[in-house]
Protein: Xylan alpha-(1->2)-glucuronosidase
Amino acid sequence: MTGVHPAWLPAEAFRAVNSRRVAVHGEGLLVDTVRAEVAAAESSSPELVLSLAASPGSRGVLGDDGFTLERADGVTRIVAEAPAGLLYGFFHVVRLGEAAFGADRPVEVHRPALRRRMVDHWDNVDIHPIMGQVERGYAGGSLFWERGALRADLSRVRDYARLLASCGINAVAINNVNVHRTEAHLLTDRLGEVAAIAAHLRPYGIRTHLSVNFASPIVLGGLATADPRDPAARQWWEVTTRRVYETIPDFGGYVVKADSEGQSGPFAYGRSHAEGANMLADALAPHGGVVHWRAFVYNHRQDWRDRSTDRARAAYDHFAPLDGQFRDNAILQVKHGPMDFQTREPVSPVIAAMPGTRLAVELQATQEYTGQQRHVCYLAPMWSEVLRFQPHGDGGPAVATLAGSGGLVAVSNAGDDPFWTGHPLAQANLYAFGRLAWAPDADPLTILDEWIGLTFPDATPQLRQALHAMMDDSWRTYERYTAPLGVGFMVRPGRHYGPDVDGYEYSPWGTYHFADRDGVGVDRTRATGTGYTGQYPQPWADTYESVDTCPDELLLFFHHVPYGHVLRSGSTVIQHIYDTHFAGADEAAQIRDAWSAVGHLVGSDVDDRMRERLDEQVRSAAEWRDQINTYFYRKSGVPDAKGRRIY
Amino acid sequence: MTGVHPAWLPAEAFRAVNSRRVAVHGEGLLVDTVRAEVAAAESSSPELVLSLAASPGSRGVLGDDGFTLERADGVTRIVAEAPAGLLYGFFHVVRLGEAAFGADRPVEVHRPALRRRMVDHWDNVDIHPIMGQVERGYAGGSLFWERGALRADLSRVRDYARLLASCGINAVAINNVNVHRTEAHLLTDRLGEVAAIAAHLRPYGIRTHLSVNFASPIVLGGLATADPRDPAARQWWEVTTRRVYETIPDFGGYVVKADSEGQSGPFAYGRSHAEGANMLADALAPHGGVVHWRAFVYNHRQDWRDRSTDRARAAYDHFAPLDGQFRDNAILQVKHGPMDFQTREPVSPVIAAMPGTRLAVELQATQEYTGQQRHVCYLAPMWSEVLRFQPHGDGGPAVATLAGSGGLVAVSNAGDDPFWTGHPLAQANLYAFGRLAWAPDADPLTILDEWIGLTFPDATPQLRQALHAMMDDSWRTYERYTAPLGVGFMVRPGRHYGPDVDGYEYSPWGTYHFADRDGVGVDRTRATGTGYTGQYPQPWADTYESVDTCPDELLLFFHHVPYGHVLRSGSTVIQHIYDTHFAGADEAAQIRDAWSAVGHLVGSDVDDRMRERLDEQVRSAAEWRDQINTYFYRKSGVPDAKGRRIY
Structure:
């Protein structure tokens, strides 16, 4: 290992900019960052001009983050109204490379579609006995802490901030939403550590957010209650928040997981989640901060024998009635699907149900259920589907629009691994997240090529093509060899890696498939099931309700059907299971083969890591194929129509 | 909690002895122990005389541990040839209570059937990240160590020794057979800790044994190899063992788990297990020590897709060919069944296969697979069946006889819990183990009543009857609501508590049930299966081979049969599963009910603990019932003939 890899910002990616004369106009921290990036003496005859326009004619059009790009008379010009815009404009030129310095370009206006583009770190600060230092972290340890203490050398945090800014991310929540006793103290006596991290994120335009424990007035303040209606509790938050802003004037705000999986919350006091969130919002409002309040609230002590409870319903049932009750600076952070970051889920019905609430959509870049950064799984095609989904049907607003006032959040997949993300190709998910948060209608495969070009600037066409081929359909490949037709889970409990079809079937977690000798799937219809389909507006409420119109890839999420049920694709459910699992495992092997042909074209450290991960993916995919096929063969008794080996 | 409970040695149990005049004749450490026990000034007209006969006429008949009991002329006399015999005679009088002082008794000779009666502690010394301080320990922490260091106060070790001696146990292995780096050092630089423990066990006639790592010459000695043929490795063991005996002259010997579940062993050097064991035996022989070499060797990285490998075959396949090659002081320690301490297993075929080898049979008092000391499960009836089993058929030697030269070993169920064993009733397993090791043909229910009488000396008949009724059939009750018909496992992986029917089905551990929509069970026949039945001598080889003669309770261990297969009992397999699971869960509730009627008759601390455990047993038994029934209903599609609720 030769040290930390530069991910998609190797020196070669800056060749086009660095070989030219550059002028930077403007003052301030972020302008200085740009100036340091170009690392060139300012020139009187520049080929690239980056200008912060103090009061340009377009004031208000570009906003904090936007910029214009123009090329004329042999000069490429970036103009921004605010410092962050200049920074984003600079990285846009880097992305363009030589193309930024070719033919003339008329003025283009670039603005992000979503104002807040955020990554959440599930960083436990200390080592959690079960989850390790980073919960669901597959990229080594924390970027911020080491052995429970702030890292002495935070230079890598600055490198991380640079990576994030280069793809448009402007907010980071630095600690786990499960706030244990240790991390709770970041809010008060360990606030200096937060400030130190913020100081390294700030030069790249990134605001620092903190996950806090709802019971902080008790845990930290020694109060008897955290009741949102209790004046002392409210005052504690006001005073505490004021101190935070005295230390970190551009602090972003709080993230809260309340009344979920054992975390404390307003339910203990008989208060609504709106009341809980508003208490924190009120404390933050005078300082311009926001609270991200997570909608991930459900009963994780369900009895599997109770068929009347449906975890998929929970977020809507809890939050839809509260629409309009949240403060303006309270953002309801909703997971993209109703369950928990499965490989395939329908879009959460909460997103369409709360027009009077600022919503943020939460994605999971850390590959908890999608191969844990040991499998190639480029997630941008899934995210793109989510962001383009129109909950009210064609012509209605897309998810990206509905989340416009809140933003897009991803659980980060980065850690102190030399490749940042464990699997070198998993970097692409972090990059693509930032790019989609900026432009949700961007083509995920164009973003993929962009990432390949930046990360491997000197790649031969053969290497670029191989990488593209390995990654473009890798999410669907992963889907093919894991849980079928949207049914979800079937993973080893706890660890969530590798197959265990019945692993969660008799558990309290509410994640069941109900496979028996006749059929499989969860009946979530209004007619005969849990009624979950009724949480969608039309046309989806009816589309999902009927087995005839429900999309194949979500059939078992919405319906319990016999193994002989014929899909819209023409295949039976059981034959589809066999076919996709044989195909998916074959594709995993093809991904490895593709790399074998080009691995020698990159450094041996990258190649070694790639081969180790790809070997594991091929092994694991075969294990998935065989367990799933054997399980359903044993249950259904239906042989594979193609006579392939089922154990 | 009022402190540590005296288990089956409360002061009241000594009332009959302590209310009489006692004389103790003899000298030595153990005689002093007896003298201290009676705690009475010696009398010139004693009613109880305990005599160590320096050279009695019966020399050689009683041996080290035997004694005679006689009552005549108003005097009860215990005579022993060796100090331990006097100690056992004393506790025998305690057990008899007033009955020892009633009518005249002719001379009775008492001798143990098995020479070595041993408990093994799976004590990790330090906290193991997964297994905790005591592996599979359900009774709190270690009796010996605290926070990785020897306990400052070892008085409880002496109390433990007293309990063990009172039921006849005379050997203790103090640390886990999985010898991690920390415990490895007990053999050398931490030997003083072993000596300190031995000093507290010695007054009760208990010799101390130590589990050692086969790779110790490398790990501790800095050598390049632990090869049994390497002179330096052999010399390291000789020198090290000599030092052990210089420190602990009555040291018992070593316990070794080699080439098993990741532990090192002779396979690494291409040597047989006999060669490995003999190297240690040779080092121990000059000092009178023995090595217990465990036969628990199997492939724990099996591929579930490979139907040709059968874990049940492993111990026999490894060890039977080595019969006659082990030294006299090498004892092959064989688990009672071929798998791993399941609720029901056939007797291990190894026990009949090695007439030229000293064998010890290993039982598991710690209830890993039998309710983890949260369920009432009195194991003596199972152990009794094992010990009475005649591998060569009627008239042949019983297991207890075949193990006569080696002994009986139990994995201890005791820890620093105030009740010693977590569940107060689990004490009975430890007690019964000692008693069965002394007299394997004793009636386990008589032993049960003996334990009840000692533990609750002042119990009303109602309380005694309730305890008897709760415990006598509790093992079979546990069997009824867990894995059916000898198929085993179906537990949550790792923790081994609670049901998970497919939990190990696709795992590398070799523990499968092969349930599909048509049937269930493992075909281990010679005709069509793995051939395991051929490891038994006749008549069992044929008895187990045929579905017509195979005992119902082991049917699925030996055969894969359709759900409609009719058992010898007349029931179908599927109906048997339903019937036993409804019955077992009902019986668990009855056990709780029985206690509810008498709980007020004991101290509130005992009652509180009992109620907490019984509530959990009832909950868990219902969970087992429902998961097993639902699993098999979903697979078979056969409804319960009695129309009871299956979820």
Notes: The first strand of chain B starts at residue 22 and ends at 25.
